[in-house]
Write a structure and sequence with these properties.
35% of the residues lie in helices and 22% in strands. By secondary structure, the protein is of the alpha/beta class. The strands form three sheets. Strands 1, 4, 5, 6, 8, 9, 10, 11 and 12 form a nine-stranded mixed β-sheet that branches. Strands 2-3 form a two-stranded antiparallel ribbon. The N and C termini lie far apart (62 Å). The structure holds uridine 5'-triphosphate (UTP). The site of uridine 5'-triphosphate (UTP) has 21 residues, from helix 5. Uridine 5'-triphosphate (UTP) binds next to helix 5.
């Protein structure tokens, strides 16, 4: 079945970025010149998605506005002859891509946020992208497109994974896989001593519609939240799902350090800014070394 819908849970509180996220969503934080959510949306569109479903909360209007038309701005840029910028703001979404927004009334966890999208997704397979996991694959296919190819080839759900240090397993969902990469078990935030592997789930999923049945039933899990991982753990008891090691660099932009590293590395590679930015970094390092 062709996948056309992607869910973007953007209803988290973003407490690690306070005060920046007090009145503005974490997903609108900017890496070089684009908000995190735009990177994720572009990755989804590249993978063939044309229905974008945002699970939002209060203070998320900026996301709706970002993907909406801004007549005043476009008129202003046109009058001033700033045609490059006009193209940039006009073409954020291709004409055949639609957006829908649904509220998560309370931040009860990622699993609950995904469940909120059920009325818009229905009973079909769909993608989930967490914008705070920025995955850059500058010279190749985006992570979701790679996963989509796996989905059509393997004919089952696909979950993106990445190898992490053993000491860090407590920050992730960790999977145990069989020889054919199918998932045997998945555990949310296990301590290093009890982690079944060091393969950590990152924020890209292709899931069957049946996931909603499990999300409706599972109790609160780690951190008192409805965890997507717990529903997947139940799902894999009756359905094949594969773990996929994608090609690309993942930046944890839900964390200040990861966010700063993403800005640094993408700025260093930027066609317009890169050289000047690195010249500044080099002179800064020189000054530091000279004391
Ligand atoms: P995080 O675990 O990073 O939580 O959510 P958070 O609230 O956004 O941030 P911190 O930890 O307080 O700093 C991972 C993803 O799940 C979404 C978030 O928006 C983010 O994309 N999420 C999380 C929801 O949509 N709803 C929730 O109830 C929780």
């Amino acid at each position: 079945m062709k996948i056309t819908k992607a869910v973007f849970p953007v209803a988290g509180l973003g407490t690690r970025f306070l005060p920046a996220t007090k009145a503005s969503p974490k997903e609108m934080l900017t890496v070089v010149d684009k908000p995190l959510i735009q990177y994720a949306v572009e990755e989804a569109i590249e993978a063939g998605i044309n229905e974008l479903i945002f699970v939002t909360s209060t203070h998320k209007r900026a996301i709706e506005d970002h993907f909406d038309k801004n007549f005043e701005l476009e008129y202003n840029l046109e009058q001033k002859g700033k045609l490059d910028l006009l193209e940039t703001v006009r073409n954020i979404l291709p004409a055949d891509v639609n957006c829908a927004y649904i509220r998560q009334k309370e931040a009860l966890g990622l699993g609950h946020a995904v469940l909120c999208a059920k009325p818009l997704v229905g009973n079909e397979p769909f993608a989930v992208l967490l914008a705070d996991d920025l995955i850059d694959n500058a010279n190749g296919k985006g992570a979701l497109l790679q996963m989509m190819e796996q989905y059509y080839y393997q004919k089952c759900g696909v979950i993106a994974v990445q190898e992490v240090f053993k000491k860090d397993t407590g920050s992730y969902g960790i999977v145990k896989t069989r020889a054919d990469n199918s998932i045997q078990a998945i555990v949310e935030k296990p301590k290093p001593e009890s982690a079944p592997s060091t393969n950590a789930v990152v924020g890209r999923y292709i899931l069957p519609g049946e996931i909603f049945d499990y999300l409706e039933k599972i109790p609160k899990g780690a951190g008192g939240e409805i965890q997507l991982t717990d529903a997947i753990a139940k799902l894999v008891e009756s359905q094949r799902l594969v773990a996929y090691h994608f090609d690309g660099t993942r930046y944890d932009c839900g964390d200040k350090l990861g966010f700063l590293i993403a800005n640094f590395e993408l700025a260093a590679r930027d066609k317009v800014l890169g050289k000047k930015f690195m010249a500044h970094v080099e002179s800064m390092l020189k000054n530091i070394k000279q004391g």
